[in-house]
Write a structure and sequence with these properties.
mainly alpha; two-stranded antiparallel sheet; Rce1/LyrA-like_dom; 6 strands; protease; hydrolase; transmembrane helix
Length: 364
């Protein structure tokens, strides 16, 4: 999808890119860094984004009703996806099925097969979005690519998000012990099963691709007509709910905001690349490195990465603060849009997430 310029309705003289920088000449550059031919423009275009500005048909009825209907659809679609995912893995793990397929005793192979089947489900039910043919959706190609500095900043932010998750996990773990409970995080469960070749292939490659197709390619694309910021935030929230984990939910929500912006303003291809980089390098890669070291050395490496992520991440956010604020202001949702979060589909998804999160705690 091309990055669309937002034209000032009052003057029609100057275009402002969605990253919040006005441009007097050509050239492409990361939206987070000031180009020498760009000047920062304050919120001249701060009226709420509506379907007329973002494209797409949004149906009939009041604005809040139309938004709630759209959120309801995406919430139920995410629920169906989750139910199907669990059903597939349940069937594949049945002893008779595992023996028939030859997957018994092969770590991660059933998970990899399930991701392929989930991709086929997305393709069968949301063909236009998955193939990038939806006219007002999120495509795989863009006239602009993110600059090197932007990609470096995005990578640092992913480390920052991971550092926050690590710190939050430690707090929850200590709080659980104080209450006589044991907390089993999703991250710890994944690390315990990363053996052979299929498990890393699943978590580092297949999962990021399928998740991006679902959350950014389908959910965010279908919510885009109701405002870019609204679509990014809502799809990130659904992304977090689908993980059903308190600490990882915080991480995935923040990651979803970043990947949503990247997919919206550049292309789905770049959000997939960043998601794969996060899972392959920052998750599996760091895990393999620390496991190869002695426990004290591995702990020291983890602490260094966490401290670097916190400090460098705050620096990036400080540098990006003005274009981020301008982007949100330029593409802010119309009044009443977030009432759409009261949709039954999303409420049920939240309840399922809370139940799943609660099940991660058990008596010591």
């Amino acid at each position: 999808m091309s990055r669309e310029s937002v034209q000032d309705d009052s003057s029609g003289k100057e275009s402002v890119h969605s990253d919040g920088w006005s441009e007097s000449g050509g050239g492409s550059q990361s939206g987070a860094y000031l180009h020498s031919r760009r000047r920062y423009r304050s919120g001249a275009e701060s009226r709420p984004e509506t379907s007329d500005r973002s494209g797409g048909q949004v149906g009939s009825g009041s604005w809040a009703t139309r938004v709630r209907r759209a959120v309801n659809e995406q919430g139920f679609y995410a629920l169906v996806y989750l139910i199907l995912a669990n059903l597939i893995i349940f069937v594949l793990n049945l002893p008779q099925v595992s023996r028939f397929l030859g997957t018994a005793g092969v770590p991660g192979l059933n998970d990899a097969i399930s991701e392929v089947l989930l991709f086929l489900f997305l393709l069968a039910t949301r063909f236009d979005e998955v193939t990038g043919r939806r006219e007002d959706g999120v495509g795989y190609h863009s006239s602009k690519a993110p600059g090197v500095l932007f990609l470096v900043g995005a990578f640092i932010l992913m480390i920052f998000f991971g550092s926050l998750e690590t710190g939050l996990t430690g707090l929850v773990d200590r709080g659980s012990h104080a209450l006589g409970l044991v907390y089993r995080s999703t991250t710890a469960q994944i690390e315990a099963t990363q053996f052979g070749i299929w498990a890393p292939l699943d978590t580092a490659i297949l999962v990021p691709i399928v998740e991006e197709l679902l959350l950014r390619g389908v959910v965010m694309a279908r919510l885009k007509p109701y405002g870019r910021t609204f679509a990014i935030i809502t799809s990130a929230f659904i992304f977090a709910c689908m993980h059903g984990d308190l600490t990882q939910g915080v991480f995935t929500f923040l990651l979803g905001l970043l990947l949503g912006y990247v997919a919206m303003e550049y292309s789905l291809t770049w959000s997939i690349i960043l998601h794969v980089a996060n899972n392959l390098i920052l998750a599996d890669g760091v895990m393999w490195l620390t496991q190869a070291l002695s426990t004290p050395t591995g702990d020291m490496v983890n602490r260094i990465i966490a401290i670097f992520g916190l400090v460098a991440g705050l620096v990036v956010l400080l540098i990006w603060r003005r274009p981020l604020v301008e982007y949100v202001r330029t593409h802010r949702a119309a009044k009443g849009s977030y009432k759409g979060w009261l949709a039954l589909g999303l409420i049920l998804l939240v309840l399922l997430a809370l139940v799943s999160a609660a099940q991660r705690f058990s008596m010591a």
